[in-house]
Design brief:
Elements (H helix, E strand, L loop, with lengths): L4 H7 L4 H12 L8 H15 L5 E5 L5 E3 L5 E3 L5 E6 L6 E7 L14 E2 L4 E3 L3 H18 L7 E7 L10 H8 L5 E3 L9 E2 L5 E9 L15 H14 L5 E10 L9 E10 L2 H22 L2 E10 L6 H16 L6 E2 L6 H6 L5 E2 L6 E2 L7 E3 L1 H20 L4 H4 L1
Parallel strand pairs: 5-8, 5-9, 9-16, 10-15
Antiparallel strand pairs: 1-4, 2-3, 4-8, 6-7, 7-18, 11-13, 11-14, 12-13, 17-18
Helix pairs in contact: 2-4, 4-10, 6-7, 8-10
Length: 405
């Protein structure tokens, strides 16, 4: 199959300049996850832009999220509202498209402006990750709407993806369940490669409570929380294995040199490759916490969890990728995919048994750094890929000859 005259009629309506102009406007807004005013401004701009599509737009309040401070006390974390557009909710076959409006660059980060490095390469905060992706998603949907569409879809753009989607994970699950397929607009891997399988990810804080005492007069009466937290870090580090990375990242706590410290907080991350690794990781945590609590006579309270389940690749996702790859080839772009160590909302969608391709966004690189860049030529190319993928999902579903082969 190559691009048909019917398909070409709506694909040729995609133009790069409007997508690029929108990307530059959105990149000029600082929407670091913690910049609530900036995230709100971005949400308003998304609502205005996506209003060209049919359907209902709403801004959903974030779920409550708690973290642990340096003193071991939980505190509420503020997040921005999440954007949702629902089109043809009555349709029997529906898909979901997701992205995020937040970036990793705080309001006081020095990287705030865009700069052209050459005619095609734009250096700028969030250009690839993922304001270019959001802009091309909209262009692709607008083109698809010119193809006599019958698929229904939800668009969910959250405000907290860069910090784990803790306030939007329930919303993602609610919208993803029962969908035919999902497209997520994370930037492509270097060279335009798509992400295949992803590990899971869990962030934890272990609050260790000991007992203070004078370091010179009666240290034996104390229970050193710093020592216990360090022991926990060592046990976790020693338990890492193939398929399960464990990173003890930070210990907070302590006090004056002449006092046995009675409080410490160990922060750590786990990345299980598959479901069995996730179960093993939880068992490792439970055993290490129990052993440290007993051997040091301290209390250990665990906060956090596995917010990103592992994302394996099954047959439905293989068929979805085959459809996307064939669409890309028909548009003149050879496409491949490979496993990656990063995580994203695609993990959460896959956990709902929905096939997902989660690197449909712009091409670029050096994300999460001041060297982040986006290739402008990928904007219209990926917008056409979105429109063609949706059109073929609409006409053929996933049960196509191209997908089976």
């Amino acid at each position: 199959m190559s691009v048909t005259s019917e398909e070409n009629a709506f694909l040729e309506t995609v133009e790069r300049e409007p997508i690029l102009t929108r990307t530059l406007e959105w990149a000029a807004i600082n929407s670091g996850t913690g910049n609530i005013a900036g995230v709100a401004a971005m949400a308003d701009m998304l609502a205005q832009a996506f209003a060209e599509l049919p359907g209902d737009i709403r801004l959903v309040e974030p779920a409550e999220v708690e973290k642990v401070d340096a003193g071991g006390q939980p505190y509420a974390v503020e997040h921005g509202r999440h954007f949702v557009l629902s089109v043809r909710p009555e349709a029997t076959r529906r898909v979901i498209l997701t992205g995020h409006m937040d970036t990793v660059y705080a309001a006081d980060h020095p990287f705030q402006a865009c700069e052209w490095l050459d005619d095609d390469t734009l250096n700028g905060p969030g250009t690839a990750d993922m304001k270019g992706g959001l802009s091309l998603m909209l262009a692709g949907l607008a083109a698809y709407e010119r193809s006599n569409p019958t698929l229904g879809y939800d668009v969910m753009i959250n405000a907290d993806e860069e910090t784990g989607s803790l306030s939007s994970s329930a919303l993602i699950a609610e919208l993803a369940r029962g969908k035919l397929a999902a497209l997520t607009y994370e930037p492509a891997l270097p060279g335009g490669i798509m992400a295949r399988a992803r590990p899971g990810s869990g962030n934890f804080a272990a609050v260790v409570t000991g007992k203070s005492a004078h370091a010179g007069r009666n240290p034996e009466d104390g229970r050193n929380a710093i020592v216990a937290a360090s022991d926990l870090a060592q046990r976790l580090h020693a338990a890492r294995r193939d398929g399960l990375s464990i990173n003890p990242a930070k210990i907070e706590g302590g006090g004056p040199n002449n006092t046995v410290p009675d409080m410490a907080v160990l922060h750590f991350n786990m990345r299980p490759r598959g479901p069995d690794d996730l179960a093993a990781g939880q068992s490792i945590i439970d055993d290490a916490v129990a052993e440290v609590a007993a051997s040091h006579d301290v209390g250990v309270q665990l906060h956090g969890g596995f917010a990103r389940p592992p994302k394996p690749v099954g047959e439905p996702t293989e068929r979805l990728f085959a459809l996307v790859r064939k669409a890309a080839a028909d548009l003149g772009d050879a496409m491949s995919w490979k496993d990656t160590g990063g995580v994203c909302d695609g993990n959460n969608i896959a956990a709902c048994d929905v096939p997902v391709i989660d690197t449909m966004g712009a091409c670029g690189g050096a994300i999460h750094s001041p060297d982040e860049f986006m290739l402008a030529s990928s904007l219209d190319a990926r917008a056409r890929l979105t429109a063609l993928t949706l059109h073929r999902l609409d006409r053929h579903g996933l049960d196509t000859q191209e997908a089976r082969t």
